[in-house]
Amino acid sequence: MSKHLLIYEKTVPVSSEKHRNWSVKTGEDYAFAKNTNAVPLTAVEFPAAAVEYAIVFTGTDEAVLPVAIMGVRHEENLYLTPSGEWKAKYIPAFVRRYPFVFSSRDQGKSFTLCIDEDFVGCNQDGRGEHLFDADGKKTQYLENVLTFLKQYQTHFVRTQAFCKKLKELNLLEPMQAQMGMPDGKKLNLGGFMAVSRKRLKELNGEQLADLAKTDELELLYIHMQSMRNFASMGEWVRDSESNGAGDKAPAKEAAGTSSKS
Length: 261
What we know:
Elements: E1 11-13, H1 16-19, E2 23-24, E3 38-40, H2 46-49, E4 55-59, E5 64-69, H3 93-96, E6 100-103, E7 112-116, E8 122-123, E9 129-130, H4 140-168, E10 172-180, E11 186-195, H5 197-201, H6 205-213, H7 216-226, H8 229-243, E12 257-259
Antiparallel strand pairs: 1-7, 2-8, 2-9, 3-5, 4-5, 6-7, 10-11, 10-12
């Protein structure tokens, strides 16, 4: 996840002067995410995402954020078919907002709508949805994009506060997922964090009550349950290595993760 903004290549501010004749066709080809093995999530997405993805946390000593694991190796997305179709039913909002994104130069006080002009769905041939009408005014499609990104930003800020609380409560610990391959070798995925059940149980009544009151306690258990999906991802990889089959969605099975304090 070292690449800035992960899937964006050439983001520029959206303007009626430059993009009046532009259209965007989305929802068919997700190849732009093929080299992304982890995608940021907002806390509100946990219930839907946990059904199909392993949710973990990543970041630094200063700040962390939740991510949905897409692959067990570098630049690998197991949730894409070779033709660029998304296999899972739920697609993270980070992916759905592409090719649009907000940028800010004043620490989040104001935002500018930008678009990745290198997205294959951007065109001036009228394919998909127009950004502006003949008078240079925003179309309903572009207004809907703005609404979606504003909602995403609100959820992102709330997720930051949620993660800050996890840091303050010292609930996160390093974790690893280990998967056995057909040749007998072990495939290890690390560099992430998960909530420690032991540390969670050691919280006092007031701390637990606060987490329960804000529904954050439920999010923690959803996160821990979601890590069962590491096992099904491992089976998916083994099937692919054994017989070249990689187009079936991973089944839900028992966990294959380990953590260390």
